[in-house]
Structure formats: structure tokens, C-alpha cells
Amino acid sequence: MHESSRAVNASLDHPVIDSDGHVIEFMPAVWPFLREALGPKRFEEYRSRQMPVEQSIGGSSSAADRRRTRSPQSAWWGSPASNTLDLATAALPDLLYSRLDEFGIDFALLFPTKGLGSGRYEDEEMRRGVCRGFNDFYAYTFAPYADRLAIGGIIPMHTPEEAIAELRHCKQIGLKVAAIPEGVWRPIAEVPPVPSIWLVPGQTHWFDNFGLDSEYDYDPAWATFAELGYPLVSHGGLGDVAPNQYVSISNYSANHIGSFRDKMYQLCKSLYFGGVTRRFPELRLGFLECGVAWASTLLADIIEHWEKRNIVSLQTLDPASIDYTLLESLFAEHGDRLIEGIDDVAGKLIMLPAVGSPPEDRDDYRFLKVDSKQDLVDLFSPRMYFGCEADDRTIAFAFSPANPGGVAMQPVFSSDIAHWDVPDMADVVAESWGLVRKGLLTEEQYRAFVFDNPIGLLGRGFFDGTVVEDAVRRNSSGGSSLPALTSI
């Protein structure tokens, strides 16, 4: 028998900070807050519909119905059941608070379950009211437990204005962190009359990830996150369902595997290439419940593309630089069988290179203002944090020497308690320590995972007034200064 989570915690010289657990909201307790935020009429309208999370896990169980409608199979059983104590723990903050020592967790940050999808409503009044009601419920319910528990608010993101209004409200009611969805659906202003190979047949909407090519300038929202001292955190499922996430009509596991990674991958690229980390160098970005291995490959891909397609290197790909005299002579010398029977070979050589229509601005890195690989690294890895669950062996990739420049990515411990993938809440920390026991992480890397990096993401001030405040203040690693960015 391996050590218990309580014993693992006792053996460490640092606290364990959970950056992403979950609450299961008891909806009759939420309803008064939703009624207050929405007003009686809109509240009754809300009650008459299925909640977004119910729409996600509901639908017909008939295989024939799903085949006709192509409705994906979702997690029809998504909460603890036989472990009834854990089910109650997910709903009752007082019980959760009383069990944290058993779990080996010193401080836990939680996110919604029934509140997932609240940023999805197309109707602005409904969307903003539902987010407001849930946030008020969270602030009221968790206030007595603030020394060891915090919960993230839900930010609607269809416009920067609504995001800013709810951010300020979250700050006012005492929420210390707030999360955005990974994107929203927008109508295509003019659907091409001839079907495009890049659009699904009949497609009328596109998915906006708030950064590169967004419908709106979200810089005022990012500035508000920074002003309020909030990290820019995203948790999948808070808003619209991203495209091509769930495609199997029969197999939930096939749908779920990789889906959170794919959500955060697109959001991360959008914010990065949109220049958010350049324009807001003090802002820390958190991508939760998605793993970290993809971040290593993403940064490597970004650098490799920059090496070949930065604005200077592009000149080697300019078809205007082709020496057609040399090309014609080489075809004449080596292409007998290839050009046999073809007239006017010289005139047709223009068809050889793959050439499309260049965009008005050819610099894919224009918002980053970089002139070296180190600039690309500095805009990425020190400013981003990635939620990883206890059993995720690929956390080791975050510390791989294969990462560009040997830089370490920054995983943060995410218990995911209250959801189906945690059969026993009391085992999560012990399971995470198994990564050290098996030689996949060093003790120093484990410390970064469960302590230093959560401080870096949330900020030292986040922990003022908590049981880990003194340990956070003594810590010289987490929340260290970000590298300065050069002005180019």
C-alpha cells in the first residue's frame, strides 16, 4: 500500500495547492441568486429550459436517433455515485473544507460544474444574468472558507464590454479569480456563394478565440484583468462548444480524450499570435484541465515556422526570385522523359511552384515584434501555465531538455475533484506523488507542479489571508519576475 495523501503532504516541506478542482452546485440553492440577477420573468424562462450542462450530457440514448441526428455521445454519468461521501463533498463547501487535510491539499481553487455553459446563451440579457447569478452564488457560498478555498467566477465574452462589467463585479463581490470560455460562435457576415473547401457544407458561423482575427478588440478586457490583478484563466466548457470536439455518436471516451487540449490549443495560439503576451507583459495566462505536453510541441512548432517564414526568410520563397533561365536549362538537361510531348515547356514552368495569393500583411509574427528565437520563448513559456491532472505522466514533458532552449513549461496541479475521473478524492495527491515514486518527476519538479507554479499563475497576493500565506511569502521561486521584453 502506498502512502496516503495526508502522509504525502506531511512529508513535503511545502504546501500543496490545487489549481483546478470542481464544485457540484445544488441548484435549488442557486436559484434565488439567478432569480435576483435575471428578474422573475427571465428566471422562469431560464427554469423552463434545459441548462447548457444538461444539454451537453443529455439527448437521446437511442443509437438510431444519434445516427440520424449525428448527436455526439457525452458523459451520461459524470459525477461520483457509489462514493456518496465524495458526491456530498462536491456540493457542500463545509464538508470539503473539513476534509482537505485528508486529501493532502492545503488550498484549493475550484471551478463550476452546473455553471458550465453559462456563457453560451445567444441572448445577451440571459447570458449576462446567468453568469451574474452563478457568480453571486459562488461568492456568498464560499466566503466563510476563504482561508483554504476559492472559486472562480464565470466571465461572458461575447463582447469586451460585458466581460469588463462582470470582471469588475467579480472583484466587487470578493472573487479572486475569474475564467473565460475558449471562444464564442459568430455569424459569417457573407457566406461564400460557391462552397469553400475550408467551411463545412452549409456553415453559417465561425469560432472566435478572442485573439488573432477576432471580431472585437479585446485589449480593454485584457487590460482589466491586469488592472484587477487577475490572471487570464480559461476553463473549457464555460461557453460555446468549440468545433470538431465531439464527433463520435457512440463513444464518450473517444470524444473526451484530447478535447480539452484541442480547446486550449486553439485559444493559446489565438492569444499568442494576436500579441496579447507582448502588449500585456505583466499578464499571466492559465489554460486549465488540458495537460501540458501540447505546449511543448506548440512552442517548438512556433519557432520552427518562424525560422522559415519570418518576414526576412520569406524572401527565399518569393516566386519572383526564381531563375527561370536556370530552371529551363535544368529541365532540358534532366527532364527528357518528363517533358516528352509537352510544347512550350519554358512557358509552362511558371506552373511548377506552389503559389497562392499573398495576404496584405505577410508577416505572421507582426503582433509579436520579435527578432530572435529567444523573444518567441520569452513571450510564451514564462507567461503561461497549464492545468494537469494527478495521473498525467506527460507532465514530465514540461521539464524535457528537448523544449526550445531547454526551457521548462509550467504545469499546475489540477485535482478535478467532483468529476467522474476522480473515483476517490482522498487519493488524488497520493496519485500525483506517484509520478515522483516512479521516477517521472524529481521532487523539485513536483514542488514546481503543486506549489511554485500555482503561485506564479495566481500571484502572491492571491494567498493573502490564507493558511498558505506565510509559506508563499517565504517561497523564492513561485511568482518570480517575468523576463523583460525588448521593444523592437
What does this 3D model show about the protein?
This protein is an alpha/beta fold and 488 residues long. It has two domains: 5-307 and 367-474, Metal-dependent hydrolases (TIM Barrel), CATH 3.20.20; 312-351, no CATH class. It is built from 21 helices and eleven strands. Strands 4-5-8-9-10-11 form a six-stranded parallel beta sheet. The longest helix is centred in the first third of the chain and has 19 residues, at 124-142. The protein is globular. The N and C termini lie far apart (57 Å). The mean pLDDT is 94.
Task: Briefly characterize the structure.
By secondary structure, this protein is α/β, with parallel strands linked by helices. The protein has helices at residues 5-11, 27-38, 40-48, 52-57, 63-69, 84-91, 93-103, 124-142, 160-172, 219-228, 252-256, 259-273, 276-279, 293-309, 324-334, 336-339, 345-348, 373-378, 428-437, 443-458, 469-474, and strands at residues 17-22, 107-111, 149-151, 153-154, 178-180, 184-187, 205-208, 232-235, 285-288, 384-388, 411-413.
